[in-house]
Amino acid sequence: MPRIQYFVAASLDGFIATPTDDLGWLLQFDGFEGGADSYNDFMAGVGCIVMGGETYAWLMEHEPGAWPYAGTPSYVFTHHEYRAPDGADITFVRGDVLEFVADFRRSAGDRNIWVVGGGNLAAQFADAGLLDEIILSVIPVVLGGGKPLLPMKGPTPPLQLAASRTLGRGIVELRYLLRAGTVPQP
């Protein structure tokens, strides 16, 4: 069965964006050693992408006309009316993540589901008991505030550290399992 994964980068103090959705702090690390390999290895196992409307709007603003996930079925949770870029396989949805999880699994086939972001959407999956794994790249900067990594309703049981590694420029990648019985990819 496909796993639902939150592959994300966050500042040392646990934010995925500034309060104004600025990612300059993260983009300054583009091209760090091991980053492309980590991303490419992860993407090789992804069969479906899920994201929130703010993440989609950010992508459309910063990569106009180019859909970075061509060939991968994608779902966008939003209350706004958006148009998909030409050639993109995007379904716009509204509602609870539980209503659509069967669609995500069907679209993913035997591959995994990537919750791209934001943190609020990933927290909905976690609060519903659907999130299997967090793959977190800790970026060595402190933002002091912003959009939280995973704003859940309450504390979780202890997560299981499945793997960790140091990448270039002081970035640490951590893989945590949230659900018992989840098997991480190598």
From TrEMBL:
Bacterial bifunctional deaminase-reductase C-terminal domain: residues covered: 2-172
Classification via PANTHER family: 2,5-DIAMINO-6-RIBOSYLAMINO-4(3H)-PYRIMIDINONE 5'-PHOSPHATE REDUCTASE, DIHYDROFOLATE REDUCTASE FAMILY PROTEIN (AFU_ORTHOLOGUE AFUA_8G06820)
InterPro entries per record: DHFR-like_dom_sf, RibDG_C, Riboflavin_Biosynth_HTPR
Gene3D superfamilies named among the record's database cross-references: Dihydrofolate Reductase, subunit A (3.40.430.10)
Pfam family, any one: RibD_C
Matches recorded under SUPFAM superfamilies: Dihydrofolate reductase-like
Protein name: Bacterial bifunctional deaminase-reductase C-terminal domain-containing protein
